[in-house]
From TrEMBL:
PANTHER family, A to Z: CONSERVED COMPONENT OF ABC TRANSPORTER FOR NATURAL AMINO ACIDS, CONSERVED COMPONENT OF ABC TRANSPORTER FOR NATURAL AMINO ACIDS-RELATED
SMART domains reported in the protein's UniProt record: AAA (SM00382)
Nucleotide-binding keyword on record: yes
Protein name listed in UniProt: Probable branched-chain amino acid transport ATP-binding protein LivG
GO molecular function: ATP binding; ATP hydrolysis activity
Species: Haloplanus rallus
GO terms for cellular component: plasma membrane
Family: Belongs to the ABC transporter superfamily.
SUPFAM superfamilies on file: P-loop containing nucleoside triphosphate hydrolases
Length: 254
């Protein structure tokens, strides 16, 4: 069943066409990886889905609803969530407090409903604390709960960013370069947790990533972008063996 649909998305900046007639669907409980050479339009497409850019043309549909005109936080409340880099002012806060603050800033629909149904704010905070504990254990960050976020390694920070996004109880999580700055020993854990979230918690992912090997390992479907458009779409094997993608990466010299 389709959860997210991009239909005819186009975005220009002055004379530059960054995204041109991009259409695709993301099915529930799949991981969709987006790859492509520099300037292919991946980040712009990501921002169109997250609501940071408005398209010149086209629509974004989530869970059957046209969300093209919704702001990022309105998308978050509907379950379409993106990760954020830990802001500078949060690096001086402890890991646990980072998690709790994320739930206050970005409560998802289910979290809001829970707050409305509980008799006191304290109970809501207790629920958030329980959820933060469960997620930190799931991400193997529990032992670091009292550490300042600024002291975490690149990979641990990425796991915390994932944890903060999970506090909003997403249905679909948009991940922008989750592997950037992650050392190899944490790469496996991060990829495994993303697959666990799909397999055990029915979550759906769209991942923009330069690390093609990582994308090939976790994705059900890969979208290959080039020159603002979708050049190739299929299983990881299909896209990897698509000669047009190879040409795109090599600048058309093949
Ligand atoms: N805010 C902007 N203003 C002007 N041009 C932009 C803007 N954002 C993106 N572009 C241009 O749009 C095109 C697509 O850029 P985009 O960042 O989406 O590609 P990308 O595939 O994410 O690249 P990279 O892998 O290098 O991050 C590029 O030519 C880029 O220079």
């Amino acid at each position: 069943m389709t959860l997210l649909e991009a239909d005819g998305l186009r975005k220009t900046f002055g004379g530059i066409v960054a995204v041109d007639d991009v259409s695709f669907e993301v099915e529930r409980q799949e991981i969709v990886g987006v790859i492509g050479p520099n300037g292919a339009g991946k980040s712009t497409m990501f921002k169109l889905l997250a609501g940071f850019h408005k398209p010149d043309e086209g629509t974004v549909t989530f869970d059957g609803e046209d969300i093209t005109d919704l702001a990022p936080n309105e998308r978050t409340q509907r379950g379409l969530v993106r990760t954020f880099q830990i802001a500078q002012e949060l690096t001086g806060m402890r890991v646990m407090d980072n998690m709790l603050l994320a739930s206050q800033n970005n409560p998802g629909e289910k979290v809001l409903a829970a707050a409305a149904n509980t008799s006191s704010v304290r109970e809501f905070e207790g629920n958030a604390r329980d959820r933060a504990e469960e997620l930190l254990k799931f991400l193997e960050l529990w032992d670091l709960r009292d550490e300042y976020a600024g002291n975490l390694s690149g990979g641990q920070r990425k796991l915390l960013e994932l944890g903060r996004a999970l506090m909003a109880d997403p249905e679909l999580l948009l991940l922008d370069e989750p592997m950037a700055g992650v050392n190899p020993d944490l790469t496996d854990r991060l990829l495994q947790r993303i697959m666990d979230l799909r397999d055990e918690r029915d979550m759906t992912f769209l991942v923009v990533e330069h690390d093609i090997e990582a994308i090939m390992r976790i994705s059900n479907t890969v979208i290959g972008m080039h020159d603002g458009g979708v050049l190739s779409k299929g299983t990881p094997e299909e896209v990897q063996s698509d000669e047009r993608m190879l040409e795109a990466y090599l600048g058309g010299e093949v």
